[in-house]
Design a protein that fits this description.
The protein is mostly helical. The chain has a domain at 52-172. It has helices at 2-66, 68-75, 82-100, 109-130, 139-152, 157-172. Helix 4 (109-130) runs antiparallel to helix 6 (157-172). The relative contact order is 0.12.
């Protein structure tokens, strides 16, 4: 019995020291991991934030470029007919969209849906207005009709999408 008590006299303090050291080191390692993760997240944000802002800028520029009034100003020429103007506008919208499609990874899914909706509504507006005229009529008629429709609306879908992007940027940054 004396031997057991003598052994316990040495083993119990050793076990207390061991478990104290074990849990202390475990907590220290956990804190160090958390600190490193925080530093990594902070460093990533410093890199990603400018890229995200650039994506919002590019998409705002995309929306400006595909707005019906800007397309009319860019392509309205007397020598074009309705069909040619319509095709030129739709080709520009497609090409601008294809050029900016990768930006969707930097913005929210809701913002991307708003942008796609603006593009689709612009295409629908151009197609619906172009159908009111014969394909070989002067493009000036289509241009005038598009501008009248845009002016009769309070906000175009591209203006609404730009406002949405601005609000989202203000919320994030």
């Amino acid at each position: 019995m004396d031997t057991v008590l003598e052994i316990l006299k040495y083993v119990l303090p050793a076990l207390v020291v061991f478990f104290t050291a074990y849990f202390s080191i475990k907590q220290l390692i956990k804190n160090e991991r958390s600190r490193r993760n925080f530093e990594l997240i902070t460093k990533n944000k410093q890199i990603v934030t400018p890229i995200r802002l650039q994506a919002y800028e590019r998409l705002a520029l995309f929306l400006e470029r595909i707005s019906p009034e800007n397309l009319v100003m860019k392509y309205s020429k007397e020598q074009l007919n309705v069909s040619q103007l319509q095709n030129q506008m739709l080709k520009t919208i497609r090409s601008e969209f294809d050029h900016n499609v990768s930006q969707q990874i930097y913005i929210s899914p809701q913002a991307w849906e708003v942008i796609k909706g603006a593009r689709e509504n612009t295409v629908k507006l151009i197609n619906a207005t172009a159908q009111q005229y014969k394909p070989n009529e002067s493009a000036l008629k289509l241009s005038r009709a598009l501008l009248e429709k845009v002016m009769s609306q309070q906000k175009t879908s591209t203006q609404t999408a730009i406002e949405y992007l601005k609000r989202e940027v203000r919320n994030y940054f």
